[in-house]
Amino acid sequence: KLTGEPPKEAVALAKAISIHTRIDVVLLVSRLVSEGGDVSLEGEISAWRVTGADLGEEISPGLVLGGLDAVIEDLAIGESRLADVPGAIESGSLSKAEAARMIARGMQRRGRRGRGGAAASAESPEE
C-alpha cells in the first residue's frame, strides 16, 4: 500500500522530464497486490502533477486514466505486462541521452508547447 508519498526515484524522473521538456508531467503510481504470482485488482493507484521541480498535490487517478489510452490503464491495473505491449521499451535499458532524444522526438511530432505557451525545445544532455 502506498504511504501517501510517491517513490523518490519516480519523483526524480518526473521532475527531470518536466524540467527538461518544460511541460507538466503526471506521475501515476500503481501498487497492486500479488498473490502466488497472480496480480490482483486490489491495491491503490495514485497520481500527482509535477511542474518543473515541484511535486504538486495528489490528483484523481480516475480522471488521469480516463484520458489515456486503454493500454496504459491495463498496465496500471495489472491486466497487461510491459513485455506484452508491442514496441514497448524498458526505460531502465535507456541511457539519459537516449531517453532525452525520445522525449524530444515525441514533442516535435506532437507540436507540444512548453509552460507559458512557448514552444518547448528539448536538447539532449551529455551523458
Secondary-structure content class:
alpha+beta
- Low-pLDDT regions: 116-127
Strand residue content: 15-25%
For the record, give the distance between the C-alpha atoms at the N and C termini, rounded to a whole number. 35 Å
Number of strands: 3
Radius of gyration from the CA trace? Answer: 16 Å
Q: Please, what is the oligomeric state?
A: single chain
Quick tags:
globular, three-stranded antiparallel beta sheet, 3 strands, 33% helix, 4 helices, 127 residues, disordered C terminus, alpha+beta
What does this entry look like structurally?
The structure is a single chain. By secondary structure, this protein is α+β, with helices and mostly antiparallel strands. Helix content is 33%, strand content 24%. A three-stranded antiparallel beta sheet has the order 1-2-3. The longest helix is centred in the last third of the chain and has 15 residues, at 96-110. The N and C termini lie far apart (35 Å).
Structure at a glance:
The protein has 127 residues and is α+β, with helices and mostly antiparallel strands. It contains four helices and three strands, in the order αβββααα. The chain is globular.
Write the layout of secondary structure elements.
Layout: H1 8-21, E1 25-35, E2 38-51, E3 54-59, H2 61-66, H3 70-76, H4 96-110
Antiparallel strand pairs: 1-2, 2-3
